[in-house]
Structures are given as C-alpha cells and as structure tokens.
Known about the structure:
Elements: E1 32-35, E2 38-49, E3 52-58, E4 64-72, H1 75-91, E5 100-106, H2 108-111, E6 116-123, E7 128-129, H3 130-136, H4 141-159, E8 175-177, E9 183-185, H5 204-216, H6 225-228, H7 239-254, H8 264-268, H9 285-291, H10 302-316, E10 338-339, E11 344-345, H11 354-358, H12 367-383, H13 393-407, H14 409-418, E12 426-429, E13 432-436, H15 443-460, E14 465-469, E15 483-485, H16 499-515, E16 520-525, H17 527-540, H18 547-557, H19 565-579, H20 582-588, E17 594-601, E18 613-622, E19 625-629, E20 640-641, E21 648-657, E22 661-668, E23 673-680, E24 693-695
Keywords: Nucleotide-binding
Protein name: Protein kinase domain-containing protein
Organism: Parascaris univalens (Nematode worm)
Amino acid sequence: DLLRSAFSYFTQASPTTTVSGCKTDHPLVGTAVEVGGLRLKIRSLLAEGGYALVFSAQDAQGNWFALKRQLAADREAANAIIREIRFLRELTGHPAIIRYVQAAHLGPQESGHGRAEFLMLTELCSGGSVVEFLQKKDFTSSQVMKIFYAACSAVRHMHTRNPPITHRDIKVENLLFDSCGFVKLCDFGSATTETFQPDDLWSALQRTQLEEELARHTTPMYRAPELLDLYSNFPIGPPQDIWALGCILFYLCYRKHPFEDSAKLRIINAKYVLPEVETGYNMFHPLIQTTLQVDPRRRPLASDLCERAGALAAAMGVDLTKPVEGLDLPQLAPTASVNATAGQVQRELASHTTEISKNMQSPRLPSAAAHRADHVHEQTAQQQASAMLGAIKGQGMTWLKNIKDRTTAMAQTVQSTYGGRGPDVSFVTSRLVIAPLAEGIPEALASQAEDAMRLSILEQARGQFAIYNLSQRRLRCDYSNRSSETPMPPLGSGITPTLNMLMSVCRNMALFLRQKATNFVVITGPEAQCVLMASVMLLYSGVVEKPLSAIELVCEKRNIPILPPSYHRQLDILRTIVSTDRENLRAMVHNRRVLLDSILISPTPTFNRSRTGCRPIVEIYSAGNKLWTTGKDYEELQSFELPESSKVDLNLGHVPVADDVQVSVLFLARINLLVFLFALFAPTWMDLRMSDLILSAVSL
C-alpha cells in the first residue's frame, strides 16, 4: 500500500516489456499512471534506495521517460524536494541539463501513511553515466573536452540566473549521456540560491552549524576549501561549483580524483599533483590550475571558464556542437518532449538531435485510438527490448548512487576525518593506547566516530580498559563506569595543562593498571594533548628516563604533531620530579607565594601596521586560573612605539602567584594577532629575592 499510494490512476496491470538488468517483479511494474495528465506505463524498476524509487516508463507513443518517486517524512524534506523540482523546471531547456517533463504531488493526508509523495518525470538518459564509461577505458582528449565543456555550459546557465543558482554537488557521477551521446547534468537536490559571507563577527557556533549544513549537501572529495575552513572568511557561493569542475576535469584526464582521500588539509591548501611528463592531457593543466584556487575570488566565473574551454577546443579542432564520439551507445526509440495535456512543449535543440525532431509525437489520440496505439507500441517495445540491454539502467543507477550519497554523506565525512585506514588507534605499549578524536567532527557524527574507535580498540586488544577523555566534548558511549572526563585547555587557547592535573591523571592510570595485569588505558581527545599525556605517563611509570625518549617512543607508533614549548617544559619538570629523591626535592621546592612586580620585554616588538611598535595584552595564570590581564578595548591598551619606547615595561602591581604559573603575551595589531606564550612553571624554583620578571621576545 505504501508503494502504491502515490499512483492515483492505476489501471489493471498488463503484460510489460522485459528489460534485461532491470527489476520487473515490483508491484508497480505493469501498472499505468498519469503524471500531470500524461499517461504512462511503468516498465521496470531501475533503482531504489532510501525514500526514493526510479522507474522507466513509456507513453502510448513508445517514448521513454524516467520516473522518480520520493517520500518526504517531514516538512523540511518536502521543501527540499519541491526546491529540486522548481530548480529543474527553471533550468530545463538547456542542452546540457536533463530535461524536466512533469511532476505530481500527494499530501500526507491523501497518501494514507502520513508522508508526502512526489513524482518527477524527466527524460531518460539511456546512455548511462560518464563515470561508467571512464571506468572501462580512458577518454581521448577530444572526449574530455566535450564532456568538460558541457558541464561548464550547464553551470554557466545556473550561475547566470537571477539570483544565481549554485548546484553544490557537481561531480562526475552526476553527468549522464543521452541516447545521442550528449552530456546532461542531473541531480539538483542540493541546489540553492543562498550565499554566505563569514566575517570576524561570526561566532564559533555559527561556523559549526554552517559547516554541518554544507556537509549534508556536498560530497567530501569535491568540497571547496571555503566549505572546510570557515575561519578563512572566504565567501561561500557559486565559486564552489567552479572548484568541483576542476576536480571533474582532473578525474576525466587521469581517472583519479585530485583529492582521493578527502583530506581536509590537502584540500584547504590545494595540494594536488599534476604529472610533469607528457600525458596527452597537458593542455588541460592551465584549466585545472585556474579552477583549483584556494581563494574562491580568484577562480574564474563560469562564463569566463566556458570562453577559455571554447578557445582551447577551437585550438584542438574539437567541434563542440557534435556529441561525444566513440561511446558505442545503444539505439533507442525516439523520446518525446511533449506534454499536450498540460500545454507544455519541451523543445529539443535541432543542433543536437535531427532524428528526434523528425519523429516528434502526434497530438494525443482519442481514448479508443489510444488503446489500439498502446497495443501496437507494446509489440514495438518488445522488439526494442534487446536494444535496451544495459541502457536504461544508466540513469537509474546514477540516481541510486546519488541517493546512497545522501544517506551515507555522514559516513563519508567520518571516513574523511579518519582517512582511508579507519579509526586512528595506536598502541604505544601493550598497556598504553592513544586514540585521538578530531575536534572538528560535527556533533551529529561524534557518536559514530567514537563508537568506531571503541570497536577498533576491542578488536585489537584483550582485557579491560579505562578511557581518559582530554577533550572538551564529553564521551557518548558506555564504558561500564571506566571512563574519566579530564578536559584539558585547547591547544589554541594558549593555556597549558597544569602539572597537578597531569600528575593526578597519571596516579589514576597507575592505580587502574595495578589492579590487573591485562588492564590497559586509552587516552583520547585532541592529538597534541594525547601525545603529551602519553609522554607524561611513560615518564611517570619509569618506562623511559628522558622526555625526548618518551616523545620518540610515541613517534615510533604514529606521526605526532609539533608540541608547543610549554608542553616540553612540563615534561622537563616532571622528569625532574620523578628522578629526584624526596630529600633533594624538598630543598628545591617550597610552597610560599611569589610576587610578580613587572614584565620587561626588550627590544620593543614591532607588530602594528606601521611596524613601529605594539599594544601588548598580557595574561597571568596561576594553577590554571587567570589572576591578572591588561585585556581591554583596543584604544585603551598602552602603546609602546619606537624610538620613544626601546622596551616594553608593564607594571603588574605585586601579583601573588603559586603552583604552575603561565604568562601569555600577545603583541596585538588590528588585523594580525601573533601570540607569544611564555610559560614559567613552578615559580618556587626561582630566587625569592627576584622582584622583576624579565622576558626576552624572540622573532618566530
């Protein structure tokens, strides 16, 4: 009932033409349906997935169509389908965009199951998808030129609308061949007219929400840098389609994607490799390079890209008005583009299909004649069944891939976060495990990523484990009360984990490890904090004696990030504590407070626009708590400029500090912030007679 409810005008099922490779046992195959007044017979099921079905359908004149049926569970999904239909209807008529024919809708109350249903009728691109042909053999340079120009032409048609329409999911899987060999762009389910311009006033929450929204409508390998790094404050809009066109051109030439692993850092830095030797496609390299620009404002407009591609085609002697040659496409019956009942006639460009224009369907027949014509064309369709072998699967299978792309977009994002080798789990020793979780994972994917990490650990080791989370984001999975939330300050905050915090975690780990010989501990969170905590544990437990040895041991198991100097300082202090006997340690350490009177920085750093000085912001932390700061409005900050001020002298006014002490100095300019972090740990190691704290600024 669920599958039948969208079809309001079924007639009794009749024998259907069998098409090899397509399903004919579906309940709807053989039935008739009217979409916007156009009477069709369902011939076969081409593809299914999620809440969508794709059928091949035939009218009384023997013309083939693709019928896409979609269910909308909520208002948001319904609006998305309606937008797709509206965009396709607005864009139809362009020779490089799949032709829209008609659509129908059934509301949630009428459907009988509480979901809105939509039927969309389009031309049937029986030639299959571009990627299927490319998987069989290489394209010639002429074929690449025609396919790429068709894609550029379709994007130009979208970008020149008012307002411009951004496809957002341009990829080689969305390029289809029609029965004549012309390329068509399909799948407008992600299209939008929205643009975004992040700036310094945007909050982290706004950026995260937009990043998650963009991830739902894009494919990881084709995402432009501005979609992955919103802190770059690049405009987000039509230029992302130009980036995707560059990825397509690279793929057409070399049968691989420039960013095959979807690695975020490679994409935001545009790190791809073009062959240096002659390959037969070197003439396309300038087009690839101009489209794969990190800054979207430096990418060409779609109209400019079409002009460049057209000029290159002329130089190559490629006729862009002719179909792609050498495809060995099956010969199908001519396709109609007339919807007489609705009064809409979709014209077929004469430059594309001469045969189709000669065989345009005649006006709709009366009812009795229609039944006779239906019988005649039933026999015709049976004769054409052999020619349909593997042909009309192409568009349906492409739609199925797009449906799967939608339902697995989140999984692809998790995979792109981890890379191609699954969750990032490293056994430093048999009892110490590092399993970093990237902080940038969207909230909706955090549980999946964590569960994948947990399963990977269980597969690789025996025994019970306790997990220590150093991230600001709490754990979600069940660890049978063997999880510990010990969030450390983010690396970008400039605050270093205190020695007391590190020692406390080490004591807890050691206690758990002593309970049973098979127990092991897992450290998760941001990678830098995981490496620091693992190195601290190696020193604390006596596995190694020197901080450098601890880092090298971790380095043998994984490529570690560059740790800030303050982390190395903590490791040095911990090494002194664990390697010094109690009596000598008492002689070195006391628990009295120390007064900080002033900070002297010489020479004066030059970080303002005119490079004559700076307006420093100083923050003093004791035991992880902020005790003193000069932070205020920019105009109220004290300015130190050469030659009047040869040094920076800040009066602190006797700030009492104890435990771990950290002094953060920011030499502030209006545009650029350069952060110098000067960490002074355990001030009880200093001479009590010292009243001035002197810091020397060095150039990074």
